Prior knowledge:
single chain, 2 domains, 21% strand
Amino acid sequence: MLVGFKSVCGRPMRQLAAVRHVAAVRHVAARGAMWLSHVFRHARRDGVAVAVAFLLRGARALADRARRDPGERAAERFLRALGYRVVARNWRSPRDRRDEADLLVRSPDGASLVIVEVKRASGPWDPLGRVDTRKKEVLWRLLLDLEGAVTGVACDPRGPAGGKTSAYPRGLRSVRTIRVDLVGVEGDGRNAVVRAHVDGIFERSIGRRHRAQPAARPPPGFSAGDR
């Protein structure tokens, strides 16, 4: 019975794998052709130096994508499908480079800036259970850093917030709300899928005139020993 089952089901599975392989090859070929067309267009219009810069930037983006965690890629696909726009990936605070946000996204209406923390689990346990008190404190500090950039209080040694040399993302002046979301992912590699999305564990509202708000108190549950 088992041998007969394998002989019957083995061929369709091999055909499906072959179809997927051909589709993947066609996709890579199409993307490569489009990329080369952009390079040649820049070379004709802007010169060889601009084309080389475009080529290097694309190669760097591909290398960064290959190094990224599959959970973050799955979370990004999930949020894009909901209408979110990615502002930054693996953004680090200029105040402390050890504080990092996996994703910074804008809400579909553009009024909210969202700090996304992605946790991935390859086993049966809850991925969001790995978000402990210390990680929540880091997310709270990141929220306050971005709030300072929106209100004009933050001091960036690279330049004014939102400028070309600033460490903060551009276009923050239109933000009305900053919040922190959690995304739980299960699986490895291409099998990684989003299982949970918790929005607004922390949230701060920004006044229309972008006035600096009073110093925010730590979120509940923090103690002096956790800092």
